[in-house]
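@channel anyone free to eyeball this complex?
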Amino acid sequence: MRALDKLYHAVEKNDSLLCLGLDSDIQRIPKFLLRQRYPLLAFNKKIVDATADLVCAYKLNSAFYEALGISGLESLRKTIAYIPKKILTILDAKRGDIGNTARKYASAIFGYFRADATTVNPYLGFDSLQPFVEYKDKLSFVLCLTSNKSAQDFQFLKLGKSPLYLEVASKVKSWNKHKNLGLVVGATYPQQLRDIRKVAVGLPILIPGVGAQGGDLEKAIQYGAGKGGLAIINSSREIIYASGEKDFASQARLRAAELYQRINFSPKLR
Amino acid sequence: MRALDKLYHAVEKNDSLLCLGLDSDIQRIPKFLLRQRYPLLAFNKKIVDATADLVCAYKLNSAFYEALGISGLESLRKTIAYIPKKILTILDAKRGDIGNTARKYASAIFGYFRADATTVNPYLGFDSLQPFVEYKDKLSFVLCLTSNKSAQDFQFLKLGKSPLYLEVASKVKSWNKHKNLGLVVGATYPQQLRDIRKVAVGLPILIPGVGAQGGDLEKAIQYGAGKGGLAIINSSREIIYASGEKDFASQARLRAAELYQRINFSPKLR
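replying in thread with the prediction:
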């Protein structure tokens, strides 16, 4: 099944726009898990078991696994294999390189790690995205406007009257021949999200920045989701570190269920 | 020793501006190496043995190792450990993510893989680079103008009168408080390299795009190196795949020596 269809099905089946971010950090997971051979995997399995009916996607933040080297990357691969097949897996790797190198990155992400979807950086332009686009059954979210403060250093710069992030949105829309591209837009910039959604009608948007980063959930839904297209809301640290004790998975479920409810009862979505 | 000092010493000791790119591809290395437990490592060791007196740096292209999964990443780690300590190791990973994630990427590259230097993507702005900058003894080359054709999609866009790549050059120069930042500028855009060098006086520049990509070596040296600061010239495929037979290492040495000579006898460097 194509990744985008899988996402639509997961959204419908679980009635959820929640994407749970597995930013699983060896320094923050419960200490008793450190005895396991693959602590991040052990943590992720419990979190997945506790939340798989509440989410449409899991987003694995590659950096947290890479930082542990081989052991972390084994956890990454095994977690993706463990996640129920009906839920979208996003390997959040933000890669961007020239064509022959980008081909290798795409092969790592979609071939070796077997993720359904990924994130990519637009700075190098179309030929750097093309190897990802060629995986027609996969889904690649292009960074458009990121949730961090320094997004303003370059993404907000004006090209004539229009900022760079809108140029990215517009170009990605024009490159979306195979309907396998989306955008990343931070919830921390709701007005800009609204402008982007107008340019990028129909493109799925991955929205991080709710929770620890202070983004506005209701506005993210109001401006990102709805008639313009699908938006999924990512939350990571707020959910997975709800507790550092034995009850970490059930506490994560409670926190995920709260956010799930807030999303589904958002007045603008109804 | 600080990475930048290490680079200066290697340039002086070997009288070389040549950075050899280990874009070691399982599909292109000699077939007889595939019997080895770590074929990419076996390939790299022979290449390094054959060229270490001709280069100032080795650049390992992370994608080629990631594409092989765990085995590839073991080759990557072991190659970096194998390279003589006097030669700079650049893990070309082009990472870019928000602060807490960037910290993990920096930890993977400098901590786990123990590279001296890396490449980073500027799209997310300063706070995404800060965790790299905080490794004061390391060196991070920020993508400014890449060697590919589609660099024109975004990097050439005009902000008022000035293109985005010059804004990147200018900001990176202003962020270089610890003297541990550099730029990546493709040899395929020599005029633009000249403009960038004027803005980025003193910053080391990593110049890919010579060889297979068709960049102009003499102009790269003329405009990138010299009074404005240090530039190192990367070549990968042209050198490491000089032969696909048993003599691959000696043929790579010949090809590297040719380029070494061309660089050192470039009229503009003398």
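from a first look: Chain A touches chain B through 57 residues (CB under 8 Å).
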